[in-house]
Amino acid sequence: MSSESRLYTFSPETKEKLRKFRLGTSRAKDPQAVIYQIDKHTLDIAQADNETYTAMQELADELPDHSPRYVLLSYPLTLPSGRLSVPYVLIYHLPVTCNAELRMLYAGAKELMRNTAEVGRVIEIENAEDLEDIEVKLGGEQ
After folding, report:
1. More confident residue, 55 or 28
2. Predicted TM-score (pTM) of this structure
3. Which of 4, 5, 27, 67 sits most deeply, having the most CB atoms within 10 A of its CB?
């Protein structure tokens, strides 16, 4: 058992939400995203709200300016070969303006979140505007 899995926790409900989101978005026709955060006091990782975002601008508006978040994103896109792909990624939103304590809190749980959510890759962004060119990042090398 890794030290992260002893420090940070996922409730059974959160684990079930993660599983349902992963399985439910694999054939989605539109982007699907949910925001997760860490409770500083209990170190529980849970969904920040009960929203599933389908518009990147709406998602960007919900990300805080001075606090990190994890975003699970399933984003259908057509590859240059013409094949449809639905990458399932973890976006690690880490604003440059967040304090060192929060930076360390989220950095320590990043791999645990990645493994628990079973995402294919992690994309780090510093500000919400970086979501505007997410399709370019998803279409790049895996």
Report:
1. 55
2. 0.90
3. 67
